[in-house]
Amino acid sequence: MIELLSEVQTDWKDNVAISFVNYLMSFSEEGVFTESHIQQLLERNFDEGLLLFRLVLVQSKDEFGKTLKALFYNNAKGSGKNGFKSDPEGYAKKLAESGLLDAMNNLKSRTYTWKDIVQERLMMGRGSAIKGQTRGKNLEDFVEQLVSNVFEKYEVRKSFVGATGLSTAKADFCIPSTKHPSIVIEVKAYGATGSKQSDVIGDASKIIEEKRDDTYFILVTDGVTWTDRLKDFQRLIDFQNLGKIYRIYTQRMREDLLADLQQLKQELGL
Q1: Tens digits of residue pLDDT in 54-95
Q2: How many C-beta neighbours within 10 Å does residue 25 have?
Q3: Last residue of a domain, which of 56, 75, 110?
């Protein structure tokens, strides 16, 4: 019987795909895309327009959904069709400014070889997991560059000895050491592989529980997906307001973080 088995033929084109391909083939090849084109594409067929934009940005359905929610988190009508209908021009402008317009024009102007196509298929197959891993590492590298510029001694991704001396907690950076850290820094890229909002809050709570009262706890986090979980982000802000976290930083707060690290070095004699 094994020798009689064969592959069952299939086709990737369902009704949605067929409709989208027809939608795609109706586009003009002339000129460059503008904000008005984004608006027109959504007015013609909102769902297929969003599918086009998602594919251009090389995002999964889940990733793109989070991107939209982050862009339109303060839109009372939401990030979907109702949000678009409430302000078509503003909706298209937001999408254009997010990098979509550049991505569309770059894609349109490219000349593809078979190697490019294979690379694109590899990216679609493995891209989400790799992007998640890279996102987390990039944020850690961003912080380490600042830490290494300010401090001579620090330890990376180790467990530090807690206030009682009997237990430990993990932190991304312990300054100057894990035995008696004056500063601990935790880095969390929300949206990176393994960094869910529950992990961020749980790991922060563990550090707060274990650290000495005179140890400065700094949290560096980023990722537009936080805008989809504002109540959870508020819990971190509450930790900061209560003095349990010295301060929370994002990548856009680079100069603030650098200045505060320099000030702490001077105050603590490190």
Answers
A1: 989 888 888 888 889 888 888 888 899 999 999 999 999 999
A2: 7
A3: 110
Phi and psi at residue 89, in whole multiples of 5°?
Answer: -65, -45
185 contacts 218 by C-beta, under 8 angstroms: yes
Strand 168-175 and strand 183-189: the pairing is antiparallel
Cis upstream peptide for 181 (omega within 30°)? no
- Number of Cα atoms under 13 Å in the Cβ half of residue 133: 5
> In this predicted model, what pLDDT tens digit does every residue of 107-158 receive, in sequence order?
888 888 888 777 777 776 665 556 666 777 888 999 999 999 999 999 999 9
Question: Distance (Å, rounded) from C-alpha 183 to C-alpha 159?
Answer: 13
Residue 139 one-letter amino acid: L
Q: Given 50, 79, 110, which residue is the final one in a domain? A: 110
- Buried/exposed code over 114-123 (b: 16+ C-beta within 10 A; e: otherwise): eeeeeeeeee
